[in-house]
Amino acid sequence: MHPARFFRLSAALLLGVFAGVLGAQQQGLPLAELGVGMYRIEAEVANTPQSRQIGLMNRHAMPAQRGMVFVFTQAASHCMWMKNTYIPLSVAFIDDDGRILNIAEMTPHSEESHCAAGAARYALEMNQGWFAAKGIEAGARLRGLDRLPPPR
Question: For every residue of 45-101, which 3-state class applies, written as one string?
Answer without folding.
Answer: EECCHHHHHHCCCCCCCCCCCEEEEEEEEEEECCEECCCCCCCCEEEEEECCCCEEE
